[in-house]
Write a structure and sequence with these properties.
5 helices; Ubiquitin-like (UB roll); alpha+beta; DNA polymerase, domain 1
Length: about 160
Amino acid sequence: MSGIAVSTTINGDDVEFLCQFEETLLDMLRDHLGLMGAKEGCGTGDCGACSVIVDGRLVCSCLVLGAEAAGRRIETIEGMATGDKLHPLQAKFLEHAALQCGFCTPGFLMAAKYLLANNPDPTEEQIRFGLAGNLCRCTGYDKIVRAVQDAARVMRGA
């Protein structure tokens, strides 16, 4: 089987995998590495369900080739918690019931993490704009926005 050998860092761990030229980063995460948090909702980068952070930039992993992960630093939802301790965003999503089926939740959490890393005190409008690339078919977005606002306060120590 031919392919490309890729060495990268995922959630702080050095990882190597072999991928085919046409396989996406999403394929690699799910099918080769067993990281099932990122979901394929659309395959066209329109829904945000597959969002991950690559070298500090939020991306749709369905639009990135697996080979492009070489030498990159990738963060997925699986690396968000620290052991058994939830990240403040995860805790606030639970507290505010900002999820229902959960399919879109990992993408929203990664988008929110990226937003707060770049803007620790966002307005409601900035939160809505920062999450605009993520779609949810179950909940209204208000609970998600409130959860992000509350997590931002906790993360700032306010």
